[in-house]
Task: inverse folding
DNA sequence: ACTATTTCCTACCAAAATTATAGGAATTGT
DNA sequence: ACAATTCCTATAATTTTGGTAGGAAATAGT
């Protein structure tokens, strides 16, 4: 149950973007973020593609273009970011969907361990949703 | 951040063992558990090897041998089981160890996102430690 | 109109981790 | 002796992850 590099770098990149935007309210070129956090432009592009799809960043193309946060960092949660990067943070198939093959018992899913995964899933998401991007960069 | 099959099958197997032991207090052959939860003997052997190392099962070899819980199911937590199967449930390297390459800032680790992983790690473990094997098979 | 810059899209490759299989050694009850 | 069982190690197959690459589309400045 390791967190992917996508999630690690993605969150770092979002922090970086938020910090730069707090400093001067301009669009930030992806290359600047990539350099700061130490990944290639091309790799980071892919992460931002996921983030954009989830509307966690907005962009403008062309020369002088770049990315901005679509809303205040106080209203963007870590949970949203990680779910965008980690395919919904689905821990086991059992959770958040039909429980067909994994459990062997789809309807109602009374498989012994279902309750465990369910509770774990909720706990993780609650935890991550309780942290905003703003609170992270403030290191609260 | 998916849970491994090891963890899924391992917990199921532990539930199965606990249930059988509650029923009649004998050692349970691994093959019986493997059949019930639908994995091969050989695969399950590996999981039990990890579980044994963590002293979450005890075994007797030879004909008529098998596995037993070394203590009451009320005093075995899901957290213990999953940590044994999932390499300590380490979410990111940053957590529970030196924070060298991943963060780029080892001492004190003030990397922006460290607090997030730390909190997440604690939350997950607290959640899992709060569930005993007995409560799981009782479906509480 | 041209150029430089930048996001966006898609395909692909390599490495690592996971999942599973296999063979056989060691132990023990009958 | 024999059958049943755990234990140990190697390895094969599959999937996932991490990262590279090329180029299309858009836009600002000249």
Result:
């Amino acid at each position: 149950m390791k967190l992917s590099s996508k999630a690690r770098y993605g969150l770092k990149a979002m922090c970086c973007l938020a910090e730069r935007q707090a400093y001067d309210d301009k669009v930030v070129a992806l290359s600047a973020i990539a350099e700061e956090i130490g990944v290639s432009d091309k790799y980071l592009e892919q992460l931002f593609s996921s983030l954009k799809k989830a509307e966690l960043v907005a962009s403008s193309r062309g020369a002088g273009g770049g990315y901005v946060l679509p809303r205040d960092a106080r209203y963007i949660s870590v949970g949203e970011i990680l779910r965008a990067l980690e395919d919904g943070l689905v821990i086991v198939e059992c959770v958040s969907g039909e429980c067909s093959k994994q459990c062997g018992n789809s309807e109602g899913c009374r498989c012994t361990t279902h309750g465990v995964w369910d509770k774990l899933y909720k706990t993780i998401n609650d935890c991550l949703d309780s942290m905003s991007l703003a609170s992270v960069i403030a290191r609260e």
Observations:
- Residues 4-6, 39-40, 42-43, 46, 60-65 of chain B lie near DNA strand C (CB under 10 Å from a C1').
- The helical segments of chain B are 5-23, 30-37, 41-53, 78-85, 114-129, 133-137.
